[in-house]
Amino acid sequence: MLSNTCAPVIALDGPTASGKGTVALRVAAVLGWHVLDSGAIYRLAALTVMNHDVVLTDLTRISDLAREMRIHFEQGRILLDGVDVTSSIRHENVGNLASELAKEPVLRQGLLERQRAFRTWPGLVADGRDMGTVVFPDAPLKIFLLADVDARAHRRYRQLVEKGESADYEIILADLKARDERDMNRLVAPLKPAEDAYVIDSSALTVEQTVERVLALWRQCPDSALL
């Protein structure tokens, strides 16, 4: 029997609000594969830090808490230590803290094996910022999903409004620009396309068009013929 480390991976990276989460879910649904939302794992770490009132300079404690998290993805829901936190981890303050924590090498190392454990048969669509460069560098297909920051801010604004939450477009835009700056310039695993990644700009594409482009690239991939 083949080991899980041989299971195929589509690594889908990109900046915040580029649509990669939605695309990853739909691609995985078509292929019948598993999904890894790595951003959710960092948000879960941020929520854990907030719940335990840990000071951000106590990196050892933060890393220990991250390793101890009991995470379960269940039919679109995310459970942390048995509690449904699907909505709460999407709050902007949690996302901003997750971006801050993601700069810390000790935390990234602590979460690396947890992310790789999601690689199981029949395959995995992994959504994040360093899936193709660090977590799954041997993925047979790597995608870097772009969208200009204004388009991403409008998407995030619409998402919040549709959920009935208050939203300020200018604040969202400023937060995205700040998050992009942190993600692209951090010393460990900065946000950038893998050298062998296909870059897709989704600014003017629908979700369906973006999904089809990813699936078309997978069909052209030699590994797809082996399944």
From TrEMBL:
<keyword id="KW-0547">Nucleotide-binding</keyword>
<feature type="domain" description="Cytidylate kinase">
    <location>
        <begin position="10"/>
        <end position="219"/>
    </location>
</feature>
<keyword id="KW-0418">Kinase</keyword>
<dbReference type="InterPro" id="IPR027417">
    <property type="entry name" value="P-loop_NTPase"/>
</dbReference>
<dbReference type="InterPro" id="IPR003136">
    <property type="entry name" value="Cytidylate_kin"/>
</dbReference>
<dbReference type="InterPro" id="IPR011994">
    <property type="entry name" value="Cytidylate_kinase_dom"/>
</dbReference>
<keyword id="KW-0067">ATP-binding</keyword>
<protein>
    <recommendedName>
        <fullName>Cytidylate kinase</fullName>
        <ecNumber>2.7.4.25</ecNumber>
    </recommendedName>
</protein>
<keyword id="KW-0963">Cytoplasm</keyword>
<keyword id="KW-0808">Transferase</keyword>
<dbReference type="GO" id="GO:0005737">
    <property type="term" value="C:cytoplasm"/>
</dbReference>
<feature type="binding site">
    <location>
        <begin position="14"/>
        <end position="22"/>
    </location>
    <ligand>
        <name>ATP</name>
    </ligand>
</feature>
<dbReference type="GO" id="GO:0005524">
    <property type="term" value="F:ATP binding"/>
</dbReference>
<dbReference type="GO" id="GO:0036430">
    <property type="term" value="F:CMP kinase activity"/>
</dbReference>
<comment type="similarity">
    <text>Belongs to the cytidylate kinase family. Type 1 subfamily.</text>
</comment>
<dbReference type="GO" id="GO:0006220">
    <property type="term" value="P:pyrimidine nucleotide metabolic process"/>
</dbReference>
<dbReference type="Pfam" id="PF02224">
    <property type="entry name" value="Cytidylate_kin"/>
</dbReference>
<dbReference type="GO" id="GO:0036431">
    <property type="term" value="F:dCMP kinase activity"/>
</dbReference>
